[in-house]
Every structure is written in structure tokens, then in C-alpha cells.
Amino acid sequence: MPLFFHDLELHQRFDLGMLCLSEEEIISFAEQYDPMPFHTDREIAKQSPFGALIASGPHPFHAIYLREWVPRFKDSVFAGKGIYHWNLHLPVYANQAIQCHLEIKLHEAKPAKGFGVINWYFSFENEKGQLVQDLEMVVLHWLKPPPYARQ
Predict the structure, then answer these.
(1) What is the rounded CA–CA span in Å between residue 73 and residue 136?
(2) 84: how many CB neighbours lie within 10 A of its CB?
(3) The domain spanning residue 105 has which CATH number?
(4) 1: Cβ–Cβ under 8 A, 6 or more apart, which residues?
(5) β-pairing verdict for 77-88 and 131-142
(6) Do the domain assignments include residue 121?
(7) Per-residue pLDDT in tens (0 to 9) along the chain, 151 residues
(8) 53 φ, ψ to 5°?
(9) Phi, psi of 124 (to 5 degrees)
């Protein structure tokens, strides 16, 4: 069921579940979007400072965005404004369990414009509870569902 601006509030949190990228998924994504050898070649990755194949920086966000965020919020989006403060703290290895959380850091209605601003904070933690990645995505959401929205 899609969620709209009026369904959301400041500091609301969402558990977006676990993400575990296989070697094949890492290689496939990297071949298309980030063809660095430590993302695409197992043998070269073993010799890299990482010691093994690692996911491209955008891959965890891209996967969770498509799997969890888009189905929940796409019908309420007026426009995207940008991604800010994207930090890659630790590498994400193949078959490593990553937990993703989402929090609303700003929830501001702009009634005269017909939309509201939401700053979405994504955080990704490994199985040790260490932050591996975080970012803020700013999106304008309709205040009222547009006529084409699924309800």
C-alpha cells in the first residue's frame, strides 16, 4: 500500500530489512555501473586492499531503493531534489548481511505549492552494528494524492 505525505511524520522510522548481495549480483551491477576490477574480478579483488570482492558504493542503496522505497512511496513523489552527504564508511562484501533503516529528518508541508519536503535518511549497518553507509535523499511529495495515484 503506497504511503503519502499525510501518512508520514518527522522522525518516523522504517525498518527496510536485510540486504545480502551475492558475488554474481555485485559483479553484474559493477559491470554496468562501476567497472572497477575490485568489483568485477574475484582474483584481482583478492589482491586489493579489501582482500575480496566488494560491492560498488551505490549498489546497496540502489538495491534497497528499488526493493523497499519505490514500492512504498513512488505514487506520492512530486519530484526528487537530490542525494546529499553520501558516506561510504566500510566496504560491503559479498554475502554480507546489511540491515537498512530509514528515518524522516525533515517533514515540511508547502501548502501553497501543493507538496511537502521530506528528507529521508538511509543508514546501512553490518552484522556487527557498524555503519557501512549512510545518505540523505530529499524528495518533494504531493500533499494530496495525484489523480493517477494508486490508493
Answers:
(1) 16
(2) 10
(3) 3.10.129.10
(4) none
(5) antiparallel
(6) yes
(7) 778 899 999 999 999 999 999 999 999 999 999 999 999 999 999 999 999 999 999 999 999 999 999 999 999 999 999 999 999 999 999 999 999 999 999 999 999 999 999 999 999 999 999 999 999 999 999 998 887 776 6
(8) -60, 135
(9) -125, 125
Residue 117, domain extent: 5-20+60-142
Owner of C-alpha cell 557501512: 132
Give domain status of residue 47, yes or no: no
Alpha carbon distances (Å) from 89 to 3, 11, 39, 41: 30, 23, 17, 22
Residues forming beta bridges with residue 136, ordered by sequence position: 84, 121
Give the whole-angstrom CA distance, residue 24 versus residue 29.
9
| E strand map for 4-130 | 13-19, 77-88, 98-110, 115-125
Region class of 85: left (phi > 0), else alpha (psi between -120 and 50), else beta: left
**Residue tagged 546489511 (cell numbers):** 98
Does 75 reside within a domain? yes
* pTM for this predicted structure: 0.94
Q: What is the number of structural domains in the chain?
A: 1
8 A C-beta contact, residue 106 and residue 116: no
Residue 49 placed within a domain: no
